[in-house]
Design brief:
There is one protein chain. The chain is an all-alpha fold and about 210 residues long. The protein has a single domain, classed as DhaL domain (Serine Threonine Protein Phosphatase 5, Tetratricopeptide repeat), CATH 1.25.40.340. It has 9 helices and 2 strands, in the order βαααααβαααα. Helix 3 (about 40-55) crosses helix 4 (about 60-75). The chain is globular and about 50 Å long. About 55% of the residues are buried.
């Protein structure tokens, strides 16, 4: 089993579908501790990404697909989500550039680059109540795995635990940090969309 251009295309389409389906949920979560636009922004950004993929002749490999999505998000999504998700996909795209098939080691390496890029861009660490709280444990799960299918199943579970783990946290980064103690008892919207990112990746790989 390997990750291919077609797998990544399917992943992006599934992720766009998740953002459309859960737009209201993400907006509700973000309204409690942020600007209230995470669901709307991610839905709009992924719609724009699919439009570009549908018209992009240059998306000939997995890396090019991800770079196309990154550019669409950076140019069309406001707030923190555009730069952070754009960075995630750009770093992954760079790691997978020119590869027709990606094995577990290559996939894990791409996710590690994505995590490092997001942390550099957002200056966030695990425990800050951000998307990193779902992203970091999921990346570590992939790095520990022995096969691709198991890697993504484990990553989905790790991302879900990380997402739920943000509920009791006090936010230390982003707009939510302005609320201090009042940010407790709310699930982070970025960690939630990251969970859907992994869920859609696992579904794309399994077909």
């Amino acid at each position: 089993m390997a990750v291919t251009r077609d797998t990544v295309l399917d992943w992006m389409r599934r992720f766009a579908g998740e953002m459309e389906e859960h737009r209201a949920e993400l907006t509700r979560l973000d309204t409690a501790i942020g600007d209230g636009d995470h669901g709307t922004n991610m839905d709009r950004g992924m719609r724009k990404a699919l439009e570009r993929l549908d018209s992009a002749d240059q998306a000939e490999d997995a890396g090019a697909v991800l770079k196309t999505v990154a550019m669409a998000l950076v140019s069309s999504v406001g707030g923190a989500a555009g730069p952070l998700y754009g960075t995630l996909f750009l770093q992954m795209g760079g790691a997978l550039a020119g590869k027709e098939e990606v094995d577990l080691a290559g996939y894990a390496g791409a996710w590690r680059k994505a995590l490092e890029g997001v942390q550099t861009r957002g200056k966030a660490e695990p425990g800050d109540k951000t998307m990193v709280d779902a992203l970091a444990p999921a990346v570590e799960a992939i790095e520990r795995a022995s096969d691709l299918d198991g890697a993504l199943r484990d990553a989905v579970e790790a991302a879900e635990r990380g997402m739920q783990g943000t509920i009791p946290m006090v936010a230390r980064k982003g707009r939510a940090s302005y609320l201090g103690e009042r940010s407790k008892d709310h699930q982070d919207p970025g960690a939630t969309s990251t969970y859907y990112l992994y869920k859609s990746a696992a579904e794309a790989l399994s077909g």
